TrEMBL record:
Main location (coarse class): nucleus
Record-annotated Brix domain positions: 1-118
Protein location: Nucleus, Nucleolus
Gene Ontology cellular-component terms listed: nucleolus; preribosome, large subunit precursor
Pfam families assigned: Brix
Name recorded for this polypeptide: SSF1 protein
Highest taxon of source: Eukaryota
Gene Ontology terms describing biological process: ribosomal large subunit assembly; rRNA processing
MF GO annotations: rRNA binding
InterPro entries in alphabetical order: Brix, PPAN-like
Lineage, opening ranks: Eukaryota, Metazoa, Chordata, Craniata, Vertebrata
Amino acid sequence: QYALIKDVVSSLKRHRMHEQQFGHHPLLVLSNFGVQQIQLKLMASMFQNMFPSIKVHRVNLNSIKRCLLVSYNAETQLLDFRHYSVKVVPVGVSKGLKKLLQEKFPNMSRLEDISELL
């Protein structure tokens, strides 16, 4: 079973598709591949070799725009393949500063100074 991208985009209220998402490789997450069967090890190895490994201590979190989740269901012996868009947002900062960090320009007509925004 699968869905076309045009069907997925048409079902979303606000879709986020831009070319920058595909500039870097996705973060690969493998789930339920811990079973010691040779065919599962081969599948896990195949998915791992499709994308370059990510050095956790050196990666820039802002460069990760996608996450690829491959989950194995042992009962049905099926793979679930999910592709997510990832958006990094600042947490624990004021609303005005958050808008500045996301490169959105807030309405400052009511303010006398930038310090009121921050």
